[in-house]
Amino acid sequence: MQRQYRERVSLKNPVHFCALGFGSGLVPVMPGTFGSLAAIPLLLMTWSAPLWMYVSITLLVAVAGIYFCGQTAKDMQVHDHGSIVWDEVAGMFCTFLLIPLTPAHLVAGLVLFRFFDILKPWPIYIIDKRWHGGTGIMLDDVVAGLMACVSLHAILLLWPF
């Protein structure tokens, strides 16, 4: 992260700590991928939760992320800096709706989510360009996660593994 932005955030600030994916967003290369990886322990903690609880946690992660990401972007004085990765955490939660958390499924879901998040096909590209603030930061990754989820369900339906 460029020094000028790094000086504007602190891992001691709980909002920044969450927005930066518990520090994973500070990795100098591929922070979005490391933010996505940071979601895996959280996903595993919710593995045995009933569906209603998993959906509730996913909604909480996404809604809280609007504040975490928006406030951290404001504090950094830059929109959607690469080190802000809470949106990747929310996207990963969306990816695994009704998907069993096996090692193979985790890898496939991670790859699909990063594919949609990086390439930003329609409608993700439009959301990324038109929505701003915390909502914009979060929404494109939530949609990428939902697209990855639908893709993973289709793959598992056609080729269960």
Automatic annotation (TrEMBL):
Domain YutG/PgpA residue range list: 18-155
Cofactor: Mg(2+)
Classification via InterPro entries: PgpA, PgpA-like_sf, YutG/PgpA
Keyword set includes Lipid metabolism: yes
Topology in membrane: Multi-pass membrane protein
TM region(s), chain numbering: 20-45, 51-69, 90-116, 136-159
Cellular component aspect of the GO annotation: plasma membrane
Catalytic function, reaction form: a 1,2-diacyl-sn-glycero-3-phospho-(1'-sn-glycero-3'-phosphate) + H2O = a 1,2-diacyl-sn-glycero-3-phospho-(1'-sn-glycerol) + phosphate
EC number: 3.1.3.27
Coiled coil: none
Main location (coarse class): membrane
Keywords of this entry: Cell inner membrane, Cell membrane, Hydrolase, Lipid degradation, Lipid metabolism, Magnesium, Membrane, Metal-binding, Phospholipid degradation, Phospholipid metabolism, Transmembrane, Transmembrane helix
Compartments reported by the entry: Cell inner membrane
Gene Ontology BP terms: phosphatidylglycerol biosynthetic process; phospholipid catabolic process
Pathway given in the UniProt record: Phospholipid metabolism; phosphatidylglycerol biosynthesis; phosphatidylglycerol from CDP-diacylglycerol: step 2/2
GO molecular function: metal ion binding; phosphatidylglycerophosphatase activity
Function text: Lipid phosphatase which dephosphorylates phosphatidylglycerophosphate (PGP) to phosphatidylglycerol (PG).
PANTHER family (UniProt xref): PHOSPHATIDYLGLYCEROPHOSPHATASE A
UniProt name for this protein: Phosphatidylglycerophosphatase A
Lineage: Bacteria, Pseudomonadati, Pseudomonadota, Gammaproteobacteria, Alteromonadales
